[in-house]
């Protein structure tokens, strides 16, 4: 199944027509045209939503979507923008004179296209230290905890959408994971996309079944624009839906997304918290990859994500990976740093263990397929621990 270019080098070797012919080797899943029964056959949960929200919403024309509250947009005058632009030019000029910056440009001249398509998950988290400066780690962690508390999805948000079900949401997230892997997007991009999706559905109502894939596609588009160096083009996102939606529909939904989310696109994720935790208390690469794997599995479970904050999911993923491979759990250093005790983590850990244990038998295999790769230590092929050391 091919969704688009895997790197910039390959993209330049073909024309768009030739690339389309090469890529169309396997039919793509178009969620918008799946019937209710077909959706259920992919995940036999039987989860249905019956209640609807009140009618006090403002209609947005053209999408059968209603926004629950208006979002303020801050604007600046032309004079202000000119002043900012002049200041930035001066700062850029000063930066270009810096010896270290010139050295960076020399070293990276011919490698941008190749390195941009590599997933962050391919590198050990401990070496990605932009969030892990010792002098500021505590402040960064406190800031992330404050942000996650403000930007949580609502409980039972699918009750806002009578035509949608938990089964449909599950199939959509699995599809997003598959697309993210095909395009070699960062692990953080997938986490952001799911966060955007859940917050959007939390603050809207009456999203139609036929528009659910459009909402998911735009969530991934925005996450890629935010996180990736070279995100896929708009036409690539049209292609992955098999032309179900036109580019103008994606653009209109993108504008609606930004208004609903009030341009709050910087959202803490379990991936970010894992980076911090592994820096403070390092573990082997296999444990790291296993923690990443179970954290991504958690994205498939709506109830878990709305019940537990990302920091707690990250702590549970760390504990589960640590216990599976070395029979360790939550080290004292992380308990002191985070304020989470093992007692706090256990409820989330039990749910995450259930998800990990059932991953092989689920119809949704995109995340598991990704972590079968040797670059992730083939951790999804490991036998999950059958029990945990507490009732």
From TrEMBL:
UniProt entry tagged with the keyword Nucleotide-binding: no
Domain (Cyclin C-terminal): residue spans on this chain: 268-385
What processes in GO biological process is this protein linked to? cell division
List the Gene3D superfamilies. Answer: Cyclin-like (1.10.472.10)
Is Membrane among the key words of this record? Answer: no
Entry function: Essential for the control of the cell cycle at the G2/M (mitosis) transition.
Protein name, please? Cyclin A1
